[in-house]
Write a structure and sequence with these properties.
0% helix; 6-stranded antiparallel beta sheet; rod-shaped; mainly beta; 296 residues
Amino acid sequence: MHQSSSKVCFVAVAFALAACSTDVRPEDGEATGSTQSALTTTVLEAENATGAGVVVNDATASNGQLRAISASYTGATQTFTTTGTLVSGVVRLRRSGACVGVDPWYIVRIDGLSVAAGNALPATWTDVPISGSLAIGTHTVEYYDRHTDPGCTIQFDKLTLTLNNPPPPPVTLTLEAESAVGSGGVVSDATASNGQLRSFGAPYTGATQAFLTTGPLTSGSVRLRRSGTCTAPNPYFELRIDGVVRASGSSVPAAWTDYPISGALAAGNHNLEYYYRFGNAGCALQFDKATITYQP
């Protein structure tokens, strides 16, 4: 027997969960980028658990059903998978039948650890909060009847988890200069990234190629070198995106050199141009590739 008391006890033990169900999208004008994550809500219906208790139809339950457990020291379990961190969580339950004093006593466990517990449940649906941390992976939740007197039942409705999922990994596009359209010639070269390059022998010429990004630019570079007889400060190059110079330089070395791409770039369709800005006769400018990294 349990000591009689009118005190109601709720216990929350730390854990963190992640799964994916309902996305919460940023509002118009809200910043997006490498730090943007997505809030999702996962609902675990107690009637889908396996073990003790029976499934009862009830129009007031979240999915029209609940799990009723009336045998002390018995429970039912279900598995779920996490991929992020917990923002908030609640378990929804109530008592039913002839419950005396501090009955019923319940426990909700995750991976064997109590995450919510209490007694003297109300007869109306009650949301009990949970919070904390738990490693990403597959987990087991248990709805447990700690003690109920004869005629007293614990009715578990659902466990709701709101999770903060990390942003997707950055995407890197490799734009091979030999695939561009315009001036210059394609030259086979084992040292080029795809075994080919685009060589410009005359200044004030360029070649373009289109590309698509689904998020803002995080970094980028263009790889090129000079060839032939070049008199300093020749050759001079430009890399343009949508008509704006994003990388430029003179006295380009004879060895492959990566120049960073500067400036912001929004998601969308873009046009990149490799441009030979200036050089003396006999001095060639060879573009290998441009690399674009963005956060979707």
